[in-house]
Amino acid sequence: MLDLPIVLFDDASECCGCGACSCICPQQAISMRADESGFVFPVIDEDKCVQCGLCTETCAFQTQAIPNELQEVYVASSAITDIRRSASGGIFAALAEQTLAAGGVVAGAALDFEGGNAIPRLVCIDDTATLDRILCSKYVQCDQDIDIYARVLDYLKQGRAVTFGGTPCQVAALRSFAYGYDERLLLVDVVCHGVPNSRFFNDYLKMRAHELDATVINYSFRDKRFGWSFIGRIDYIKDGKAQSAPINGLEESYYRLFLEAQTYRESCYQCPYASPLRPGDLSIGDFWGIREQHPELFDGTETVFDDDLGVSSLIVNTQKGKRYLEEHASDFNLRRSTYEKASTNNKQLLRPVERTHQREEILNAYHHGGYESVSQWFAETYKKVL
Ligand SMILES: Cc1cc2nc3c(=O)[nH]c(=O)nc-3n(C[C@H](O)[C@H](O)[C@H](O)COP(=O)(O)OP(=O)(O)OC[C@H]3O[C@@H](n4cnc5c(N)ncnc54)[C@H](O)[C@@H]3O)c2cc1C
Ligand code: SF4
Ligand code: SF4
Ligand code: SF4
Question: Does residue 322 share a domain with residue 219?
Answer without folding.
Answer: no
